[in-house]
Amino acid sequence: MPASYRALCSDFYINLKMNVRMELPSNREPVLELFERVRRSYPAMNAFRRYKEELALESAANATPHQWMAIRSSSVRAGVVNPSTEEEMYGLHRIAAEVSPYYLSISPLDLEYIELLYGFDLQASGNHNAIVAASLLGGSPLSNLVESDSVRVTDCQPMVGMTMTDETGLEVHFEVKTRSKKGKADGAPTTEPISVYLTLRKYDPVTKLDGLVDQLNELVGRGQELVDEYAVPNLLVPLRDEIASSSF
Hints:
By secondary structure, the protein is an alpha+beta fold. It is 32% helix and 28% strand. The chain has a domain at 2-21 and 82-97 and 109-245: Alpha-D-Glucose-1,6-Bisphosphate, Chain A, domain 4 (2-Layer Sandwich), CATH 3.30.530. The chain has a nine-stranded antiparallel β-sheet, with helices on one face. β2 and β3 (55-58) form a beta hairpin.
């Protein structure tokens, strides 16, 4: 599965976010004890960083996979970039969901939502917005707005949000993010990718902390289904094919 994703994009990543209603502790003892616990499971995560709004534990920037965990005032986050196996995709996230509440005194009442994001970066030069318009709008009524020699598309970043009627409190978003600057000449090189995001967010996920990993596993199962059945054939493949043949 990870290998099939790498064939479609330059980088892919899976991020976890657990958002809380009350401010998390930032004093030394709970944070360092939590990071030491994570490092015992993932020895490559041995770099402790302090950023403007967060404390983070990371592996080396060039490690494959690159793994990180961060604590902000109202959230615990974790991520893995370019994993090679399914265990690498989700192992750190499960550890974070299992141990963070106990080290940081998070209760089920405090836990606002748990979020899982699948991200895919596709390198593309030229006009990102024109590439997205050609690959995703072609043949639709919206294509009539942009299929003209006198038109240059300057913003095309489709996003669809939905609630799942078969599961209370679950929101899903599909989003395409472009990074071409407005006014930039067509065909000008850029080092920034086009990104495709699938975000699943479950509100008030648990009533008992020992069910948090189970809830994460349910999100993983749902997310994997949405990636494979919808994001890959309807977003990633058309974008990849358009980039490969693009004259923009």
